[in-house]
Amino acid sequence: MKEPPMVAASPPPDPARRVDLFMTALVRAWVRGVERRPRLALGLTLGLMLLSGWAIATHLSIRTDTSAMLSPDLPFQQDHARLKAAFPDLGDDLVVVIDGLTPAVAERAAQTLSQALTQRPDVIARAVDLAGLPFFRRNGLLYLSPAALDTLAGTLTQAQPFLAGLGRDPSLRGLADLMDLALGHTEAPSDPILIAVLERMTAVTTATQHNEMALMDWSAAFGTSPARGTATRRFLLIKPVLNNASLSPAGAAMAAVRAAAAEAGLSEATGVRVRLTGSAALAQEELGTVRSSMGVSNLVSFGIVALLLVWGLRSGRLILATNAALVAGLVITAGFAAVTVGTLNLISVAFAVLFIGLSVDFGLHYGLRYREARVAGLANAAALDEAASSTGTSLVLSALAAMLAFLSFLPTDYLGLAQLGLISGAGMAIALLLNLTLLPAILTLMPARPVKPIGVPAGALRFSLLHLPERRPRATLAMTSVLVGGALWLAVQIRFDVDPLALKDPATESLSTLYDVMKEPGLDPYSIDILAADAAEAARLTEALNQLEAVRSVASLPALVPAEQDQKLQVIEDLAFTVGPSLSLPQEAPPDAAGLVEARRRLIARLADVHAGTAAPAAQALATALGALGDDPTGLERLQARLLDGLPDQIARLRDSLSAGPVSLADIPPDLRARYGAADGQMRLQVFPRDDLRDPRALQAFVAAVRPVAPHATGAPVIIVEAGRTVIGAFAEAAALATVLITAMLAAVMRRRRDILLVFVPVLLSGLFTLGSAVLIGQALNLANVIVLPLLVGLGVAGAIHVIGRAHETAGAVLDSSTPRAVVFSALTTVASFSSLILSDHPGTASMGILLTLALTLGLVCTLGILPAILALLRR
């Protein structure tokens, strides 16, 4: 009996093929289940949206503190925490910057505002005018250097006649008497103080005539004040009551300050400018910028994506279904963020724009494949099934790649990035699920009608730019090699700016004010803080720090006690003997209207009679100005007020300063002492830099100089430098982890190992080109936009997965299918969504939009330009 011929058994499918078949079958089964119960799918989705809306309204908030975006377990974070524990009042403060036309105006404004704010304990815990404290009124001269005090003593002695005359009669009549005395004792007056007084009086008189604001600064005229920039500026240090349950924690306190200033008439019209800065104000205004900008970005992003869907899908029902999946996914993802995270940061707040740009990717690929099947004549159910079969694996892989890229942020010490990774990673799963649930459910109930094809017919693209890479692969790759060389040369020049101030809007009042006052002693935000265990250690550290070239000065509790007191007190005692009596004369009653007119007449006559000496031009100019003003009593009263209203206060302050006595540490005001000395004996040293630390190299040098002396130093410069290192390490870690995870995923589902390498080609090239382009346009990497680099690993592979998968399915004719259209419109929607971030007023968010737009645009070029050229060469 003849045996039947042996038939070789078919080899079992390889593991990658089995995974591919399993995912395709799973997606098809899911879509078929949705087709059978579309209303149940819609109902469940709506229920999840309602629950998410409730969670968003009750649990979601935003925090702008950049230090909270890093792990508290990092050594430099722990150093800062120890400082905060010892000095809990540091930070979360408001600084009210008061600029007046004269020192007297600034002082009165500070006193008025400080007193008003003490009446608002509901929003202001404490308001301190350090310069206005009685301690400094009495002992302020002790803080001058011996040389400066000697100069002041000489000037006051020379100005004694002016002080005595105007102290007794601070009116136009007193000025007339003073000019009789000063100009009448010589035929050629040339006293420099007299000339300064005449010139300033002329300026005020002329401004009064023209209804312009001007006030007489007698301290500047007598040379008895510091430089004008500091003499006319006062600071109120405010501890606000923060409402952390509100989206505007410091909003009520800032509003109270502005309301009190307005009620007191402190405005530029009265010679006063009031501005707010400090950490609480910076955070408050940054929060407002982020909230308003992200709202605009989200609306613009959604609008542009919707328009691109109309252009790309050209089917009303497909557009409706895709947008429905987008909106539902965004709401549910935000609800997930509210439940799992609760408080968003400056990076994770961008999850909405990221979701809008990425979610439509799934809908576009599924929707266009469904439309292609409907055009081919398939029934609605068959078209849904065909779309699931054709795109299922690619969609799952793309979603997994994006998820892995986002979730790779989780293990890093950059908590802001980890938070975004968690939210957006979950968002990718939600987007995939809704595009395979809500979209088929809507299309089951409202099938899209078959229409004419929108893909380009086979052969029509062969003469287009899109087919050039396939037709000229060698030329394409040769040009790519040249571009890679240029990009490498540029990429190594990329800057990384880790200064958190660079992420804030410079147009906000708080930041512009901060930059304006940065050179004020004690207000430089770039100072280093050092915690000393006791006075002995503080003294040792201070001595070592003062020897460093990078250090300008060191503020500490012992440094608050004036040096060389015996020498200074002797000078002050001599002044009190010679000048003091002139400051305590009884004041005469002010002149009436007739007295003002007569005083003006006497002044003009005396001034006009000066024809010789260096004071003559100034005297003649003042006589002319007084003559032009006229003799209207109202105008003369206004002039008298502008010339002399602040003088009695200044004389009183000078009189108080001549009663100075020995100062010890116990005499330092508690509000000031508490900033440098803790209750347990620890001391804070505040180290100020010599150079402008807005220069990154100077910042690095300052920290490098101080830390060998004080290894546990903290403060903004240390945090900025260490945060930069942490962020760079976090992104390198995330990028490496994402690459490993995505490679493992691709190895499990791709039959050809070569395909895995090909998937990463567009990613590597677009990353390199992005860095090179950033250098060309002058865009530095920062704490916000550096997110682009690890994201490229996950997002960049999506288009390559679709192109390579469809290339195998169509035997190389990938550019003649709907896939290029889906890839192009997917990239366009993502780019359009991310580019809306550029509209943000927040520099960090805007820079994120710039770099994301660059990266995805270049990624599209690499995916549809360079990858097809490589595939074409490999097919030959």
Helix-strand blueprint:
Blueprint: H1 15-36, H2 38-59, E1 61-62, H3 75-86, E2 94-100, H4 103-117, E3 124-128, H5 134-139, H6 146-158, H7 160-168, H8 172-184, H9 192-209, H10 218-222, H11 228-231, E4 233-240, H12 251-263, E5 272-277, H13 279-313, H14 316-340, E6 343-344, H15 351-375, H16 380-407, H17 415-435, H18 438-445, H19 468-471, H20 473-491, E7 496-497, H21 509-517, E8 528-532, H22 535-546, E9 551-555, H23 565-578, H24 593-608, H25 616-629, H26 633-644, H27 647-657, H28 670-673, E10 683-689, H29 696-706, E11 714-715, H30 716-749, H31 753-777, E12 781-782, H32 788-809, H33 819-835, H34 843-875
Parallel strand pairs: 1-6, 7-12
Antiparallel strand pairs: 2-4, 2-5, 3-4, 8-10, 8-11, 9-10
Helix pairs in contact: 1-16, 2-14, 2-18, 6-23, 7-8, 8-24, 9-25, 9-26, 13-14, 13-15, 13-33, 14-15, 14-17, 14-18, 15-16, 15-17, 15-33, 16-17, 16-30, 16-32, 20-31, 20-34, 24-25, 24-26, 30-32, 31-32, 31-34, 32-33, 32-34, 33-34
